[in-house]
Amino acid sequence: QVQLVESGGGLVQAGGSLRLSCAASGSIASINAMAWYRQAPGNKRELVAKITSAGSTNYADSVKGRFTISRDNAKNTVYLQMSSLKPEDTAVYYCNCNKRLTAWAAYDYWGQGTQVTVSS
Q1: Low-confidence residues of the chain, pLDDT below 70?
Q2: In angstroms, rounded to a whole number, what is the distance separating the alpha carbons of residues 6 and 112?
Q3: How do residues 25-52 score in pLDDT, each as one tens digit?
Q4: Which of 92, 117, 108 is CA-nearest to residue 39?
Q5: How far apart are CA 60 and CA 115, in angstroms?
Q6: Which of these, 26, 10, 33, lies nearest to 106 by C-alpha position?
Q7: How far is CA 78 from CA 44, 55, 69, 95, 99, in A?
């Protein structure tokens, strides 16, 4: 089992910045990747940014150049630095952990979500 606890959400004006944190605990060995997803009302959950165990990153086109995902292995924490925020970034942001169970199977763990609201 992996437990994920997010923090750092809140209300910010357009053009502002926020940093989300996701602290992982429990059975954190064999993690393939950590990621941030978001879900706005009426929309499907979408990938925002991902960082693999090797340190590779990828981003949704809508956040490239504005968001940065990073990790602190010593603290078992992943961060999402969000800058130049737009009202369309408003959503509940979820931390995700993809953990390898066997050579051919993995499991996704999710945090409880943190609300980000960007006012215009």
Answers
A1: none
A2: 7
A3: 998 888 899 999 999 999 999 999 999 9
A4: 92
A5: 19
A6: 33
A7: 23, 12, 7, 9, 15
